[in-house]
Design goal:
The protein is α+β, with helices and mostly antiparallel strands and 229 residues long. It has eight helices and ten strands. The N and C termini lie far apart (52 Å).
Length: 229
């Protein structure tokens, strides 16, 4: 299957073999489970991204993969989009990082149009119980890291400004929760503790994707806490 990625009027043709899409099904489902928690789409927190918004999020990751010349990741991101948006022909990627500005073009053949994509939620498959030992251990480690990160974020909510409107809370949360950054071979982010005036670091997290997911949760928690009366 072919997806054309358009970047600043230059077209990159991604020919994704069917076996890649088939083998990537479990990975694609994991991406959906991550996005089920909500996602920061540029300046807007989206509680429950619809199918089109999810593909816009993945398109942003596709742009990063192309910029870094990561062919394997690029193929997987293109595979996700092709599997979720029937009849998609191309995606025009926004270079400014505005996720919601990633635009899709579809063939004229009957399929899922833009409106249909917004009304449809991804079909989730249950996680396979026959996970390997390595996968089980990684999942447990991620869960532990996630719990510690959530606890650190919750502890940092004391002495916050309160009663902010949505725009004010969004801006303040953006200042209070850093982007994910690399530490050695691991990743972490930091949350401002207003009570002490110090930054609280998340635990070291094995993968950038997991760190980004946990950061999104911390951002959401801070955003909501700032709006409390």
């Amino acid at each position: 299957m072919i997806l054309n990625a358009i970047i600043d009027e230059q077209v990159y043709t991604l020919n994704v073999p069917d076996p890649v899409i088939e083998r990537g099904a479990e990975f694609f489902d994991q991406l959906d489970r991550d996005m089920d928690q909500g996602w920061q789409m540029s300046r807007e927190w989206v509680e429950a991204p619809d199918r089109l918004q999810r593909c816009q999020i993945i398109a942003d990751k596709l742009l990063t993969a192309l910029e870094k010349e990561n062919e394997k990741l690029g193929m997987l991101m293109a595979g996700y989009i092709l599997s979720r948006l029937p009849q998609v022909e191309s995606v025009e990627l926004d270079l400014q990082g505005e996720i919601q500005n990633n635009q899709f073009r579809f063939s004229e053949a009957p399929g899922l149009d833009d409106a249909g994509a917004r009304q449809t939620t991804p079909h989730e498959k249950p996680a396979s119980p026959a996970a390997s030992n390595g996968a089980t251990e990684t999942g447990a480690a991620s869960g532990a890291g996630g719990g510690a990160a959530a606890a650190a974020a919750a502890a940092a909510h004391s002495d916050l400004p309160s009663g902010l409107n949505k725009m004010q809370a969004m801006a303040q949360a953006g200042q209070d929760v850093t982007q994910v950054f690399k530490v050695g071979k691991a990743y972490r982010f930091s949350v401002m503790d207003h009570a002490s005036g110090n930054w609280q670091d998340s635990p070291l997290i094995a993968t950038e994707a997991e760190a980004e997911r946990l950061r999104q949760q911390a951002f959401k928690a801070r955003y909501e806490a700032l709006q409390q009366p």
